[in-house]
Amino acid sequence: MLAAALLGSQSAAAQTFPNYPITPGQRSTAQQVAQAGVPLSELSPNAPERYTIQRGDTLWGISGLFLQRPWRWPELWGMNMDQIRNPHLIFPGQVLVLTRIGDRAILTFESDAAGLPTVKVSPRIRAESLADAAVPPIPLNAIEPFLTESLVVDEAEHARAPRIVATQEGRVLLSRGDRAYARGQYGTADALDGVALTTDGGRPLVHRIYRNATPLIDPSTGETLGYEAQFIGQSQLVRSEVLREVDGPDGVQVKVEPATIDIILSREEIRVGDRLLPEPLREVPVYVPRAPASAQSGQIVKAYGNALRFSGQNQIVVINRGARDGLERGHVLAILKDTERLTDTTDATRPALLLPGERNGLMMVFRTFDRVSYALVLQITDGVKVGDRFVNP
Prior knowledge:
The chain is mainly beta. The protein has six helices and 25 strands. The strands form seven sheets. Strands 5, 6, 7, 10, 11, 14 and 15 form a seven-stranded antiparallel sheet that branches. Strands 16-18-23-22-19-25 form a six-stranded antiparallel β-barrel. A hairpin with a 2-residue loop joins strand 3 (95-101) and strand 4 (104-110). The two termini are 22 Å apart.
């Protein structure tokens, strides 16, 4: 994850960490800052002279301690590139020291030569992944369900998705360990449409089971941007879907034999009519908080959390811009309050007033689809609601 780094050349321990990418632009910015330091005007008014990294810290929070604009993490990294070689690794116990020189500032580690605190252990073998202890860029526990379970599909993909068509012994509800039958094709044997579920040709064997594909509606246009699929379980394909010839009263007939699946995970009861989509590839999420390179503007489509109408800090929202609009994981966006209409009670004519939309907070995109994205609210003044606008930070 994003953070500071170890001193010296690549050690055997450092080589165990994933090689997270650093864009040329971020490296260039950091190199420029490393040559001269950061202007004092860029520092947070309450920037501490020393700060010890704590468990539970995030790079976003640490950057916000020292910089007015936390998404500008390359400046934090570039304050001392001699010590901070890899901005993806920072650990609890490291001490950051802020030094002001003239109208500039630099950031260094107060630590041993390895950049890591000394830990004493008793004489027995212990193993602990340093990667697991590294400070993440944002609170990953807040977004984990939306990384592994949320899925947005378009109308055509939803319509073509294979579905469960039958159960053993006429069961109404299915759970882990049960067997069921599914079809990827539609229609009768002489007029089939769709793609059959098969175990041949490297086709996916594990599928996500979903229900209630809820439309995501653009607040401005009323257009359906996609369908959010409710994850309820996983299935394993056991036997392919085939067409089989059987003897009938009028001769040989062609019958559709559905695929056989086993339920390997269930979050809730599964039933006939639920649909299947191939299990996506697992990937290690890499988040580089930064401002979008292109101009962005849009609206909140949906909000999650305990509040049905308003979202707060560390809650998730869906926005009506996605990959086709140039949004990427890590892009930081400013949230604006909606414009407010009211009557001027100080004027006898009672004219209507339109208060401008003020900046309300910041959010970071952590997952994108074609036309929508998920974002985590990082800073907020008032609650966020559906229809609120966002722009570049």
